[in-house]
């Protein structure tokens, strides 16, 4: 394995991208790096503001490259966007390196004040404490050389730290503690770092990068944060939640305020369109049927000249009026031939003669008289040219009517809103995947032999519900209670999805890291952190800033739901699904799930908080009303209370006015989360 630092060189320049041979910055940078300590393993030229800039850096981080040096795009020109592209990728900024470069350059020219370099460490996707050091250099070969030379003595120590070393265990600190020059012999430190990094962390090649597009410390953020600081000792952390307790209505208002409508795209009219919301009105392009046609199987004829009797059967569609004494055999939906104005049903005819060779009918006997226009659909009788058949905001449902209508009017493609992609993550050291049997095997098959963890039911439940609603999903797996792991998973979700749903980690426990991670590591904004409801009090809603060079500048939504299964699913239906329905283009007023009045069949106690009680709703033939049947115990950890549930009773908090319970026979509002059950006879 190599014993030098691996380096990626990236030139960012429109000119060099058009004519790669014109770039002189990368050869200059190569000449400055000592060849016995640094090895350039990759180089590339990309245009200013090209998506390849970020993509290339991400790929090199995944490869485990130790040092990435970019040249160009750091000035104040309209196309200079390198700092905006790189800063959000950085997990740990290195402002000292930036100061060193600017100080060195300002000593040479005052124009250096116009440079906007950034530097810092991007964490490895492996989450093992290692990372890639990134420094942005000017595009001028002379300026790039001067900036890099100003860093050469400190780069080895920075690379040691980026490689996972602790500050006081590095070669530099060991020299200082011995009273020596800490930076003397830095080339040895570089080689020691490179050897350890390449041997100890070669697994970088086998992991997906989680940090693409994620906001780092360089992203804009509020000056005050309410979340606890995970670096503080447990005993010194907050004992009471700093988040105000807000109502469900206020929570929904905040969600809708920060939820955007997805962009519009043209889609083919095919089964995959089901679930999409139309972004345009659809009008009939012509009359349907375009001319007179029949709605039966039978025989077309001229009513006035075809009384009951025997007639010759014509089976080939005539282009001229049929001769007297004949009828045309016709199928449902077919156009009427010239000279005909009515159709007689097969049931009103008899076979009079057959062809001797084929056995097919030659003549038929009509046993009834039909009137003109009988069994005929007139031109445009279904829809006329210009008729509105579907409206913007209509959902292409799985009932089939909308898809059939589009096909009926000949609409081959239609403009529809893009459906949001949703990533789902479960958090908690105690969780294990349902299909993971390793702990059970270690326990000898006896559950009581040792604690084998809690089976994660939230993730498969939410993924299943989302997929049944035709949303594309990303499974982020189970995340341990660590800031590095949580940050990496959320970054992956931010990069690949529009909405991230997490469960667990939202309360006040030692391992509850969602809020600190969102605020302190990802530069996000937590809009609320507690809701006055049962279940679901710790529900959290946040937004993460988009990458400055992302195709869409809309923020990514994060719903951090409670870990208890009932709480997670109830809050999904009350908060997450309405946001998704807005994003997919539904009309205002259709974002929330429908609420209907239901009659209680048993007494239901009221809680100190407004409660969402799981019930099974079905109509009663006797009363003509919808009746609600409780699913039993409503403890938030009791997943079975959700089995068979298709509604959530919206119960008020206990009070003097509301009393302490709702009695059987009373009517209360209910949020429908599924199909209404069968009729009770």
In words, what does this structure look like?
By secondary structure, the protein is of the alpha/beta class. The chain has 5 domains: 5-170, Molybdenum Cofactor Biosythetic Enzyme, Chain A, CATH 3.40.980.10; 264-287 and 382-417, Alpha-Beta Complex (Molybdopterin biosynthesis moea protein, domain 2), CATH 3.90.105.10; 293-377, Molybdopterin biosynthesis moeA protein, domain 3 (Beta Complex); 422-432 and 454-584, Molybdenum Cofactor Biosythetic Enzyme, Chain A; 595-672, Beta-clip (Beta Barrel). The chain has a 6-stranded mixed β-sheet, with helices on both faces. The chain is flat and about 110 Å long. Mean pLDDT is 86; it is low at 185-224, 233-237 and 441-445.
How many DSSP H or I helices?
16
The share of residues in extended strands comes to: 15-25%
Give me the count of strands.
Answer: 33
- What is the CATH homology-level superfamily of the largest domain? MoaB/Mog-like domain
Mass-distribution shape: flat
Q: What is the percent of helical residues? A: 10-25%
Give the termini separation: 77 Å
Q: What gyration radius follows from the Cα positions, in whole Å?
A: 35 Å
Largest sheet: 6 strands, mixed
CATH fold-level assignment of the largest domain: Molybdenum Cofactor Biosythetic Enzyme, Chain A
Domain MoaB/Mog: 8-158, 423-582
Function: Catalyzes two steps in the biosynthesis of the molybdenum cofactor. In the first step, molybdopterin is adenylated. Subsequently, molybdate is inserted into adenylated molybdopterin and AMP is released.
Organism: Rhodotorula diobovata
Pathway: Cofactor biosynthesis; molybdopterin biosynthesis
